[in-house]
Design brief:
The protein is globular, with a radius of gyration of 22 Å. The longest helix is centred in the first third of the chain and has 17 residues, at about 30-45. The chain is α/β, with parallel strands linked by helices. About 30% of the residues lie in helices and about 20% in strands. It folds into two domains: about 5-185 and about 345-360, 3-Layer(aba) Sandwich (Rossmann fold); about 190-345, 3-Layer(aba) Sandwich (Rossmann fold), CATH 3.40.50. It has a seven-stranded mixed β-sheet with strand order 12-11-10-13-14-15-16, sandwiched between helices. Strands 1-4-7-8-9 form a five-stranded parallel β-sheet, with helices on both faces. Strands 2-3 form a two-stranded antiparallel sheet.
Length: about 375
């Protein structure tokens, strides 16, 4: 099916389940505007004029800190998609005369407020939560909470039909809600497309390129890149000191490498999140000791909780040659200005998901990017 015909199908008012509505929560407005621009443009190209699919909403707070959700126009009968960014740390609110930064807990409460404000009037409620709330606490050891699992159950009980997330830390958390729609999306095609766009000497073939998993937890996503590109893969495993606990975790003693020789090859290291980034930089340094060529890091959520100083130094010293991260969560202006950072735009991908779900069409082709990646490699004469 041609792209033009595909767009007509996706905006056929006779086949959609209900009129489409999009709410972008505070912190996700930038991404929401980009998604809406795709939806509006495709609708116009398919012959359905609609200025915007965005529905105005707000979560104001009283001076005491109490909040409420407010939807400012009708959503009755809409197939409602709520886009939220649980990790946006740049949003503030007034609290007893002081500015308070919103945490993931605050964002999650506002999401529930907006769902409450819908008051059961929407035809269906879908939540697009790229970074899962509580997703890093994905399993229980000893007496611990399971915030993500409980949150998903809570959303289900509030009437949410589908949750869409990107690169979940552990997608098995969906087992907590087996009767609710849950899709874990991996933006592999968007990552490779960005690398071809931004790297002049990018040659992802077996002679010049290699994938390395930073640890055993990231092995599946790295195996996928190695498989679709037809290149070798190595991995590190973290040797920890289980007699000590620092910041709630056992400290890493060393990174041990297993795999083929990396000498002279450019390396791609993929993970779901760069938090402090120390582990990623240690892996890159170990690869440099083994005479690797250029090293490119990727994380779906490049949040840099400890700042950028160590990455600036690593880039200056030639330890890393670039870091790729998506626009699925907040990126500070300082990060976007870094010469070593490259953004992976996922707005169009989200727009495809929304239109596909809005017509109750199969999303298997949207989730599986294999064909698109193969076409991309052919375009750049890589196969």
């Amino acid at each position: 099916m041609s792209i033009q015909n595909e767009k007509k199908v996706l905006f056929d008012v006779t086949t959609r389940v209900a009129p489409l509505g999009l709410i972008a929560m505070r912190g996700a407005s930038e991404l929401g505007d980009k998604v809406n621009s795709y939806l509006s443009r495709w609708a116009a190209e398919a012959g359905f004029e609609n200025e915007t699919f965005l529905i105005e909403s707000d979560c104001p707070r009283f001076s005491s800190g109490d909040g409420k959700g407010l939807i400012k126009q009708t959503i009755r009968g809409n197939d409602l998609f709520i886009l939220c960014d649980m990790g946006n740390y740049s949003i503030k609110y007034d609290y007893f005369g002081h500015e308070n930064w919103m945490s993931p807990d605050d964002h999650y409460q506002d999401l529930k407020r907006i769902i409450q404000a819908a008051s059961g009037k929407a035809y269906r409620i879908n939540v697009i939560m790229p970074s899962l709330y509580g997703g890093r606490q994905h399993r229980r050891n000893y007496r611990e909470s399971l915030d993500c699992a409980v949150a998903l159950q809570e959303l289900q009980s509030m009437g949410v039909s589908n949750v869409l997330t990107f690169d979940a830390h552990d997608p098995r958390v969906q087992n907590a809600v087996p009767l609710m729609g849950f899709d874990n999306i991996i933006p592999s095609y968007q990552v490779l497309k960005s690398m071809f766009k931004n790297l002049a000497d990018f040659k992802p073939n077996k002679e010049h390129f290699m994938i390395v998993s930073p640890d055993e937890g990231a092995i599946n996503r790295n195996m996928y890149y190695a498989s679709v590109l037809g290149v070798d893969m190595g991995m590190f495993y973290k040797r920890r000191d289980y007699s000590v606990v620092v910041n709630g975790r056992n400290p890493i003693v060393a990174h041990e490498y297993m795999g083929n020789d990396v000498t002279g090859k450019d390396i791609f290291i993929a993970d779901d999140i760069i938090s402090s980034g120390e582990s990623m930089l240690e892996v890159a340094a170990e690869l440099k000791k083994r005479n690797a060529g250029k090293i490119y890091c990727y994380a779906t959520y490049a949040i840099f909780t400890n700042g950028f100083e160590k990455f600036d130094k690593a880039y200056k010293d030639g330890v890393i040659d670039g870091v790729f991260g998506t626009n699925l969560t907040y990126r500070s202006p300082e990060l976007l200005a870094k010469p070593w950072f490259y953004e992976v735009d996922c707005a169009k991908y989200i727009a495809y998901f929304i239109t596909t779900l809005n017509h109750d069409m199969s999303i298997s082709e949207v989730i599986d990017p294999h064909e698109k990646i193969q076409n991309l490699l052919k375009k750049y004469d890589m196969i």
